[in-house]
Amino acid sequence: MLSLFRKKPKNITLASTGQQFVAAPGETILQAALREGIRFPHSCRVGGCAACKCQLEDGKVKELTESAYVLSGDDLDNNYILACQSVPKTDVKIGLPHWDARSPSHDIRHILGQVIQHQVLTHDISAVTIRLEAPLDFTAGQYANIRLLGCDAPARSYSFANTQQSAKGLELEFYVRRVDGGALSPLLTSQQVLGEAVEIEGPLGDFWLRPDDTPILAIAGGSGLAPLISLLRQGIVDGCQRPVTLLFGARQQRDLYAMEEIQRLSEQWQAPFEFVPVLSHEAEESSWSGYRGLVTEAIEGRIGGDTQVYLCGPAPMIDAAIAECQKFSVRPSQIFFDKFLDSRDLAATQSAGRKMPAFA
Q1: Which among 61, 131, 153, 177 could bridge 223 via Cys, Cβ 3.0 to 4.6 Å?
Q2: Does the domain formed by 109-204 have CATH 2.60.120.380?
Q3: How many C-beta atoms surround the C-beta of residue 33 within 10 A?
Q4: How far is CA 204 from CA 20, 134, 265, 291, in A?
Q5: Residues 271 and 244: beta-carbon distance below 8 Å
Q6: pTM for the whole thing?
Q7: How far is the C-alpha of 163 from the C-alpha of 160, rounded, in Å?
Q8: Cα–Cα distance measured from residue 61 to residue 42, given in angstroms and rounded to the nearest whole number
Q9: H or E element at residue 279
C-alpha cells in the first residue's frame, strides 16, 4: 500500500500566481511545469545554474542532487530548492522569488535545418549559421539545443546571437566554442560542418532583457557574448535608450572577437554605450594597452544600486560577478545570468559527487 501511495501524482501550487498543476510519479517540479505549459524560470534544467530556485512553502520533496553546490547558505536556511532537481513526495506549495509574468512563453519546437555558414572568429570560437525549414519564434537571450544529424554526438545547448527578426526566424546564428574532448563542439567548429543537417529544439531559457529605464551592465566571458549581442541587437530594434556598459573578459588578444559588431552596436545605440575588453593572461610585453586582470575587477566605478546586470559566461565568472555586484548594493532581483557549462565542468563536478550538463 505504501508503494502505491508513493506513486500517486502530486499537486503543485505556485504561490506567486495561484496556478496549480500535477507532477507525475518521479517527475521533477520543473519537468511538470514545462509539460503543463506553465511559465517557470529556468535555464540549464540540470541543477547547474540556480535559475529555477524556488521556496518550498509547504510539503516535502526528494532532491535528486545536493543543492548546496549552487544555493547560498541563506537560500538553504529559507527552504529554497531547485525545481529541476526536486521530485514532490507530497502535494507542495512553492514561491518564485523573482516571478515575472512577462517571461517568454514561446512554444518549444523541434525543427530541422542545415548549416549554411561557418566563420572562424578566434582560435577556438566559430560563428555557425543554420537555416531552418520553418521559422522559430524566440526572445533575444534565449538558447536552443542543437543536434547534428547523422552522428552519435548528443545535443548541446547554445545561445542565439541574432534576433528573431533576423531572416524572420529562419536563420539562426550561434557562437560555438570548441572544447577539447567535447562531443559536439569540435564538429560544429570545423569547416566540414557546412551543409550538414541539424535538429533544433527551442527556444529555451529565461534570460531576456527586462523593460526598465535603469542603466545596463552586461558582462560576458568566452562565447558568452552571443546572448548579450542578441539582447543588444534587439534593444536597437526596440529603440532602447538606456545607458549600457559591456565588459568582455578574455585571456589574450587572440580571444577577442565580434569587435566590429560591437562597434556597430555602440554607434547605433540611442544612449551612452561603453565597451571595455579585459584580458587576464596577456603577456606583459605585448602591445595591449587596454584593461588587464579579471573582468570582475572592472565593475567598480561602472555600477550603481539601480543598475540592471546581465551576466553570461563560465560559472566561476558568474559567481564572482554576482558577489562583486552585490558589494555595490545591486539587489539580487536586478541580476540576471546564463551560466555556460561544458564537458570539463561535468568531469570536475562528477568527482565531487554532483551531476552537471556538458554543453560541448
Answers
A1: 177
A2: no
A3: 25
A4: 22, 17, 25, 34
A5: yes
A6: 0.83
A7: 7
A8: 18
A9: strand 273-279
Q: What is the pLDDT of residues 131-144, one digit of tens each?
A: 999 999 999 999 99
**Spatial separation of the C-alpha atoms in residues 355 and 347, rounded to whole Å:** 9
CB atoms within 10 A of CB 195: 9
Domain ranges of the chain: 2-95, 109-204, 216-345
Check: CB of residue 29 under 8 Å from CB of residue 50. Answer: no
Residues in the chain: 360
DSSP letter string, 19-37: -EEEEPTT--HHHHHHHTT
Place of cell 543543492: 67
Domain with residues 216-345, CATH architecture: 3-Layer(aba) Sandwich (3.40)
Q: Which of 3, 23, 25, 5 is nearest to 14 (CA)?
A: 23
Please state which architecture CATH assigns to domain 2-95.
Roll (3.10)
Sheet-wide strand order for 53-58: 20-23, 10-14, 92-95, 53-58, 80-82
DSSP-derived secondary structure for 175-210: EEE--TT-SSHHHHTSGGGTT-EEEEEEEE------
Q: 157: Cβ–Cβ under 8 A, 6 or more apart, which residues?
A: 44, 143, 144, 145, 146, 204, 357, 359
- DSSP for 299-342 reads -TTS--TT-EEEEEEEHHHHHHHHHHHHTTT--GGGEEEEEE--
Cα angle 54, 354, 297; round to 5: 75
In angstroms, the CA 310 to CA 275 distance is 14
Residue 342: pLDDT over 70 = no
pLDDT single digits (tens) 178-209:
999 999 999 999 999 999 999 999 998 889 99
Report the distance separating Cα 217 and Cα 274, nearest Å.
Answer: 10
Q: pLDDT by residue (tens digit) across 27-50?
A: 999 999 888 878 787 766 677 777
d(CA 70, CA 66): 9
CB neighbours (10 Å) of residue 350?
Answer: 12
